[in-house]
Amino acid sequence: MTNLIVELSKYGLTILGALYTLLCFSILKKNEAGQEQGFGLQNLILFFLHFLAYAVLFLQTENEDLLVFYVAQVLMVTFVQVLFQTVYPKCNRLVMNNMCFLLSVGFIMLTRLSYDRAVKQFQIAVVSLLVCFFVPILIRKLKFLSRIPWVYGGVGLMLLLAVMVFGENSNGAKLALSLGERFSIQPSEFVKILFALFTAARLAKSTAFKDVVVTSLFAAVHVLILVFSRDLGGALIFFMMYLIVLYVASKQPLYLFGGLGAGCGASYVAYQLFSHVRVRVLAWSDPFSYIDKEGYQITQSLFAIGTGGWFGMGLLQGTPNKIPYVEQDFIFSAVAEELGGIFAICLILVCLSSFLMFVNIAMQLREPFYRLASLGLGTLYGFQVFLTVGGGIKCIPSTGVTLPLVSYGGSSLLASLLSFSIIQGMYLLREDEETKSEKEKQRSKKRKTKKDPEES
């Protein structure tokens, strides 16, 4: 009976994932009442998907702790949805729903891969969500955020320098600072946000050549510190975000193409200087020739994706733990193996939906700082998803970055939730701008109405 339920659950999870994804792109075409119904339906689908996955996990493991863990997650998501909509009635529901969906998929896969890590991730998520709850208020109330670019840049540089000097060495790269035996923090995850705010504040103020040079040099120092720390995935994300924001702010194609050329040259230099870069390129170019050594991780990832097929092997039916660092760098491959290729594609599309909403919010903001900051955070998010998925499917060399809100990692989780909360705050600013504009129109109309009778 259990085997039958597991087999049928594959199709149920695929259908639910596809329905949720379809709503991500169809909701926005409806009127306000239709959108509310669509968002409610998304929440219903999410709870059904979450219940089905944990029911399958419980039936196969008979671990009663899973029941308590499942209820705790349901309470957390419900609390976030209800409280956030109560305090911020004009919040962006699609961004919030996608955040909850990605968190839920992450908990499902982490529970399957490592229950202890899933519990730890949940604890970090609860604390992070409590912190992030106040972020939209701060974004709306603090009017000086655009006037302190050097604070963002200075704090970010100090954190990166601390990692370069005192950081722990992991697989040839210095990524984290140890906070005792059990805890560590990866500052570059938070520096991404500071870097986006620094770039936005500087370029919103001026895009004159002199100011662009100063800003670019300061940004280059960020990237170089990451390179010397051998965090090349982080360096690439920082570089691409700066390049996109600079192009949008200045509208100068020369900056874009010049930056891309410089990036290609820097990639060649990194290949020549760092042995672990050559190893990753070698593993990417011909992984099956080095399947016992350099190519082991990527070949296991490809085997997992291929084995899963369209509908997956079913939860606990695959062997994703054969992939080294599967909970962090290759969780997308685990999703593809056990939940299926269709579900994995839906996961990418949900991430794409979030990215497009970030960009849409950015383009509708009037103040340059908020517009560029939102675009920068959206670019960071979108490019990180691309690097994670691209590395897992052998589209690009593996860069060792996590899939936001899905992969295991406390620093990555908190930073991703902060980014989503900042975007929510900027969306509320846009709503405030529209409300203010509407009130001004009404006042203008009233003044005109009063003036006309007096003239007559």
What does this structure look like?
The chain has helices at residues 2-26, 32-61, 65-87, 93-113, 115-132, 135-141, 149-166, 188-205, 209-228, 232-250, 253-273, 275-285, 296-308, 331-338, 341-364, 368-392, 410-455, and strands at residues 168-170, 173-178, 184-185. It has 456 residues and is mainly α. The chain has a 3-stranded antiparallel beta sheet with strand order 1-2-3, with helices on one face. Helix 7 packs parallel to helix 9 (209-228). The longest helix has 46 residues, at 410-455. The model has no long low-confidence stretch (mean pLDDT 88).
Mean pLDDT across all residues, rounded? 88
Q: Judging from the principal axes of the Cα atoms, what is the shape?
A: globular
Q: What's the tally of helices?
A: 17
The count of strands amounts to 3
Roughly how many Å is the radius of gyration?
23 Å
The structure class reads mainly alpha
Helix percentage range: over 70%
Tell me the major beta sheet: 3 strands, antiparallel
How much β-strand is present in the residues? under 5%
Give the distance, in angstroms, between the N- and C-terminal Cα atoms. 85 Å
Elements, N to C (H/E):
HHHHHHHEEEHHHHHHHHHH
Features:
single chain, 3-stranded antiparallel beta sheet, globular
Q: What is this structure's SSE topology?
A:
Elements: H1 2-26, H2 32-61, H3 65-87, H4 93-113, H5 115-132, H6 135-141, H7 149-166, E1 168-170, E2 173-178, E3 184-185, H8 188-205, H9 209-228, H10 232-250, H11 253-273, H12 275-285, H13 296-308, H14 331-338, H15 341-364, H16 368-392, H17 410-455
Antiparallel strand pairs: 1-2, 2-3
